[in-house]
Amino acid sequence: MDWGMENRLAQLFQSDGHGMFMPIDHGYFQGPTRRLEKPGEVVKDLFPYYDAVFITRGVLRSVVDPGHSKPFILRVSGGTSMARKHELDNEGITTSIKEAIRLNASAVGISVFVGTEHERQSILNLGKLVDECEEYGIPVMGVSAVGAEAEKMQDVRYLSLSARILAEIGAKFVKTYWCPGFEKIVETCPVPVIMAGGPKVDTEKEVFDFVYDGMQKGALGIILGRNIWQHDYPVAVAKALRAIIHENASPQEAQDIFTEEKEKAEAISAKV
Ligand code: 5RP
């Protein structure tokens, strides 16, 4: 692997080989997502607990201080919105490779909608992006996207198919969902796999359980947003997850960290 490519990947995946990434790109098709209405506040509160961020150029330029940044994966696909939910799979490339280089991205991320009406177009978008990025040593993160078909997030056959195709076309790592039988996705995908969170679940323990399970089964990390920054105690969840990702903490140990941090936060807010 070329030095630049390897160096960029090392900015994302830490010396233990694992990475904890913060996605705040949701606005590119959802607009002002709950508790991400002011992305600058999420960045300020949570940056210290993540290794890197997944972000669009617009939010990066407007809320991230270039002097105190983190490595970031630049979201470069889009072109659709929740206003036309049935067409979410009809994405194109929104941001040039020149822009990714100008901004100093550690990687770029693109959604691919396997099994949808625009499957072919989105797979070809990925191929084109990989061709351009390889020339400049920029890793491409393939996002296994389900569009409006949320039930696919739990379908191991579908997610394995999608992850494998993304790797075959040239993604350097794949963002997918945890699901029952997750090991099949990892075992049949020849590049690293990281887990997205999906919509917020009821308790933080559910998140600790699935993240731990996924890591045991070979995921290299998480790219988890709503289940952290939509939580009432986001820093406590982030610290607990960091322990699972980088210290191999068990779900119970993570829960203990969460409880301790939550109590600290409550004590501080009681004083104010
Ligand atoms: C939105 C995305 C998000 O980055 C991805 O869904 C991860 O965030 P969350 O944990 O909130 O699901 O690709 O298009």
Structure commentary:
The structure is a single chain. With 272 residues, the protein is an alpha/beta fold. It has one domain (3-271): Alpha-Beta Barrel (TIM Barrel), CATH 3.20.20.70. The chain is 46% helix and 15% strand. It contains 12 helices and 10 strands. It starts with a helix and ends with a helix. The structure holds ribulose-5-phosphate. Residues 23, 25-26, 54, 143, 196-198, 223-227 line the site of ribulose-5-phosphate. Ribulose-5-phosphate binds next to helix 10.
Strand order of the largest sheet: 1-2-3-6-7-8-9-10
Return the domain count.
1
- Total helix count? 12
β content, as a range? 5-15%
- State the share of residues found in helices, binned by percent: 40-55%
Radius of gyration: 18 Å
Low-confidence stretches: none
Report the biggest beta sheet as strand number plus sense, adding barrel if it closes.
8 strands, parallel, barrel
CATH architecture: Alpha-Beta Barrel
